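Same chain as my last thread, 366 residues:
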Amino acid sequence: MKNKKSRRGFLLDSIKGLGAAALGSQLFKTEARAENKESRSLASVVIAQPKIRFVIHGGAGTINRKDMSAEREKEYHAALTEALMTGYGVLKKGGPSLDAVEAAIRFMEDSPLFNAGKGAVFTSAGTNELDSSIMEGKMLKAGAVASLKHIKNPISLARMVMERSKHVMMVGEGAEAFAKEQGVELVPQSYFYVESRWKALQREKAEEEKNKTPQDKKQEKDHGDPIDHKYGTVGAVALDQDGNLAAGTSTGGISNKKWGRVGDSPIIGAGTYANNRTCGISATGDGEYFIRSVVAHDLSALMEYKGLSVKAAADAVIEKVVKLGGNGGLIALDKDGNIAQSFSTSGMYRARVGSDGQPVIEIYKD
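reply #2:
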């Protein structure tokens, strides 16, 4: 009996050992599966990283196909393409969204085709006054400048205000004094002279002398030369490989404006806004209405608090502007890479890089 009990005990111990070994093996397999699952999860995270996206605009207004010559349309198409690919090229090389936005806007500021920088319209006093702003979506840092008269690239000075000062906005002589401190070369007012812009000012002044009713003036302006850029502004929004959004806007304002007038372009939350939780926005239009509607921030808030898509939010805020009596448009890019281009005018110079990496250039609404 004793031997049988001993053998039985040995067998039980052996079975327990096998059970422990099997359990250990099972645990190992479970852990291995967990590790593999985690590895797959990490891999999916890498794959799911946001794809770079880029979108720009060159202003909105009464831009009709029938009024645009083939040659002029070709010029705008080429300029928009180069500006777009300049910024997108920064993103493709792994550069940050801020660099892409600044690079594209600098290109448009240097072109006489757009109402920003070189192509700025004239004030009623016959001067050029420039406004600009830039914002990044990670820390919500922003910089803005307004009423500049001697700065070739306002967007770059706006970025300097953001990165090299404790302020958000600087204006006029103070902003230009800051520019000198930063080593920025000032240019004479003559640098901004563009014949078509000067003629536009003279036409508007002549209209004022005729004492026309406000409605008559509005109808003539609405059917004016498309290169007058009734709502001329340039802007860009970028999403980089790290998922950071940035937006920027630059303008020469509106032709025949009163000295010292400032529109929405340099106003954070009105003409420019960026937030990694939602989207980046750059607007163009009747600045006074965009300021009153706080368009850019309102768009972001509609996404964050109401869960609207970037397209639905963009359409909603433009509709608000129209109801107040204003007009214009905007570009927006959300944190997932979705692009919205919403405007109430007959056209808006705009360009984007599609999901296939190819440029898409558009001018008219139809």
